[in-house]
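Tokens for Mg-chelatase subunit ChlD. Go.
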Amino acid sequence: MTGPDPGLERWRLVLGEAAEECLGGLGDRDAARDRALDWLYGRDSEYARRGIRRGGGRGRDAERDADLSPSQVTPVDWLDDVHRLFPKETIERLERDAVERYGIHEVVTDPAVLGRIEPNPTLLRAVLRTKHLMNPDVLAMARRIVAAVVKELTERLATEVRRSFHGTRSRRPSPWRSARDFDFHRTIRANLGHYRPDERRLYIERPYFLSRTRRRMERWQLILLVDQSGSMAGSVIHSAVTAACLWGLPGLKTHLVAFDTSVVDLTDDVTDPVELLMGVQLGGGTDIARAVGYAADLVDNPRRAIVAVISDFYEGGDEHRLVRTVRGMVEQGTRVLALAALDEDAEPEYDRELAQRLADVGAHVGAMTPGQLVSFVADVMG
């Protein structure tokens, strides 16, 4: 007797219980996966709109539906099942949907869940959005997630910073020997005379190395203005990490400013991004014009300044004032970046009409990953 067809089982998992009559049942493991998926996605209002009844079945299905009711399965139980049944990439997607799509805040406010959950950027965003719901004990556990994710992001970006700001390799030979500056091609060409055919080996008598150009570190300013509305949580995280990585670089003065309808200068806290993020208050309105005006007052030398406005550009303040201020900074020589996102996906939702108006007065509009922003700053500084 053959088991269920794997291809049909996958389609059955994708299409849900409504497809069981056509595609057949599931094996034990896939049935467990189906229960875990149904616990989460079964609450989707789309089922009701399409007239699909959840629960109320007979036999095995009725038993399964009863077991899946919210009163029977807790977020802790569900999380245990998810980690047992699915690969890591799927787990992260399910956790993200639980928090961001269905608002199951117990995933990040229940101590039992926080104690066993694997830190990742999705959970960090959830912590920032829900930390006001946490009691002190839970908040202390949530800090573990913040610290772990920030550490990983910082280490990753620090590599980009070193690469971008160390200088480019030139073709001039260098007396200084460094493995990363090893000139492979010239070394091979210069030592071909030492090749031993009988041994099939090339002996290196003299290795060659490339020199590096030294960047001119004239004093520059980087002012990061980050919108702290709820939809910008990812950009807030990466702005804090970026500011921390750039802080203290020779020739660069970095500012970090958060805004909603008010403006908060976080520059003094950038050396501790964990504490900085735990203190950020997401949500509220948006007054981009006010924040950009604050940044304009911070600029010491317009021709040595980069202002990065990180927002979805749904302006609650004065759009005309915003455009006028950006135009003034650009005319004075300041590089203005209007970034609809600063995160690892760089796939933003934003007000394209206002962004176009900013582009028309000279702002560079787009979305960047933190590494791309670091490279841009390094290139501008030359």
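The CA atoms of residues 45 and 52 lie 10 Å apart.
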